[in-house]
Amino acid sequence: MRLLTKFSAIVLLTLPAISWALPSDREKPINIEADNAQMDDQQGVTQYKGRAILTQGTLKIEGDIITFYYDENKQLEKAIATGKLAKYQQIQKPGESPVKAKALRMEYYANRDKIYLIGEGHVWQNGDEFTGNRIVYDIANNAVSANSAPVNVDGETHDRGRIHMIIQPPKKADKPAKKSTPTRVTNVASTQAPQTAPAQKKQIDSAATTAKTESTTPEKQYPEAKTTSRLNMRTGPGTGYQR
Fold it and tell me: Where is the Organic solvent tolerance-like N-terminal domain (predicted)?
């Protein structure tokens, strides 16, 4: 075991990439700041004590003690942060606010891609809040589950009662501006187009023919009768008769 004791030291280590980071975060170096560090290569354990802070891109973990456990291939198996309180934050998707969490004890398991918040757990996610004695944050699915069962942290039992959640309503999509429908203007003149010259001529000829027909039609003949005084009496209207 190697014991490194440094006051407010900044340790830059090429640790295996932490899988909870964004793709862009994984390409960034891991930065760890602590008062001291202990490394056990045989056991595959590295521990940082005294206001330990780990950052990698947008990922940030704080705790009084942060301990990393590795397998025989030097791959990260789990990480545990403890303190009053241990804290975690990271941007999960570009453009979103970071997910934040805190608890007395945080346990991250690489093969599950989950963070367990044990004792006074609290998560903030896109405006929603979750509090409970035990909270599981599923990083891959961006999901949170919580329960109120009592937990034991460093030999002490913690029971905060029921869980509490604050769920924000979904944001309403902005309605597109209503397009103004242009007023349709109808050209009245176009709907009553003037008749062409041939049509006008045909109409005039028709009127003339009608007038001619009326003028040449003989007046209707009515029967006549004569009185004893030789007066010519017509039974129909008119004044053209002989006395």
Answer: 31-141
Local structure of residue 153 (DSSP, 8 states): E
> What does the DSSP assignment read for 158-221?
E---S-EEE-PPPPPPPPPPPPPPPPPPP-HHHHTPPPPHHHHHHHHHHHHHHHHHHHHSPPPP
Per-residue pLDDT, 25: 78
Contacts of 100 (CB under 8 A, 6+ apart): 87, 88, 89, 123, 124
The tokens 């999509």 sit on which residue?
173
Give 140-149 pLDDT, tens digit per residue: 888 888 888 8
| Weakest mean pLDDT among 52-66, 73-87, 159-173 | 159-173
Map out the domains of the chain with their CATH numbers. 2-166 (2.60.450.10)
**What is the CB-side half-sphere exposure of residue 126 using CA atoms within 13 A?**
13
Contact 107, 151 (CB under 8 A): no
pTM over 0.90? The answer is no
Of 18, 8, 6, nearest to 88 (Cα)?
A: 18
Residues 6 or more apart in contact with residue 37 via CB below 8 angstroms: 3, 4, 6, 9, 11, 46, 47, 48, 49
